[in-house]
Model the fold of this input.
Amino acid sequence: MTRVSKVFQIRVDSAKRRKDDESHAGHIDGTQLAPHNRHMNQEHFDLLGGTAEDLAVWHRDHSPEQLDLKGADLSGRDLRGRNFTRALLDGANLSGANLDEAVFTEAKLRGTNLSGASMKKATLLRANCAGADLTGVDLRGATLYRCVLRDATITGANFKAAILFKVAWPQGVDVPARG
Done:
């Protein structure tokens, strides 16, 4: 199958999925959406029910459009390996979610609840997490580059083996330099 055929097939599959989703409005992955998620862009929310590749194809086809998931309830979801580049996740609930190896380049996560999430080997490049709740987040092996954590709660967060460069830490947090 050629690359063009694959892309076409993915688009056809996506169109079929959207049509199926329209007939199940208010549902994703067979479960009822929380009432406050119903106002969201359904296409953007539905992308999270697909594979990491589906989301990557969407990014390629819609660049530089931003994935708008502000205020979404994604708690406990398996979102490992997803690409949230330039995504708007302000005020979203990602508590307990599996975000291992997810990419948050230039993502907006202001006031987002990430408590108890697994973010092992995640990448946060120029991500704005101001005011976010990172209580108990597992960031082992993650990369944080020019990430804003001002006013964030990081109590119990695990940064073991994380690569930290020019991170704007919450006031009063003293992160010792190791080298």
Q: What stands out?
A: The first strand starts at residue 27 and ends at 28. The CA atoms of residues 67 and 87 lie 5 Å apart. Confidence is low (pLDDT under 50) at residues 3-12, 14-33. The chain is about 20% helix and 5% strand.
